[in-house]
Design a protein that fits this description.
CATH class: Alpha Beta
CATH topology: Ribosomal Protein L30, Chain: A
Strand order of the largest sheet: 2-1-3
Length: about 90
């Protein structure tokens, strides 16, 4: 009669902190500048960037990203390269 052993693996699970990136409308950036920067930050297609830019323009702001905080901070940094008014909300 032998002794049985059960080995359990410990799994490390990282849970990202959820965050949103909001871009606010301003009077000094062109549509083209905002669209280009959104494509660069979000790696989205032209039509998505245009739709977000239109929402920013007509509503005064838009949530352009929802995800974990680390990615949100990356998006914020890219958008702020051209001094867009950006807020990260946790």
């Amino acid at each position: 009669m032998g002794i049985g052993f059960e080995v359990q693996e410990e799994k490390k699970v990282e849970i990202g902190i959820p965050a949103k990136v909001i871009v606010y409308n301003d009077d000094w950036h062109t549509f083209e500048e905002v669209i280009y920067q959104l494509i660069k930050a979000l790696k989205c297609d032209l039509s998505t960037a245009e739709a977000l830019t239109w929402e920013i323009h007509t509503k005064g702001k838009a949530v352009v990203f929802e995800g974990d905080l680390e990615e949100a901070l990356y998006v914020q940094n890219v958008l702020e390269e051209i001094d867009l008014s950006v807020e990260v909300v946790i």
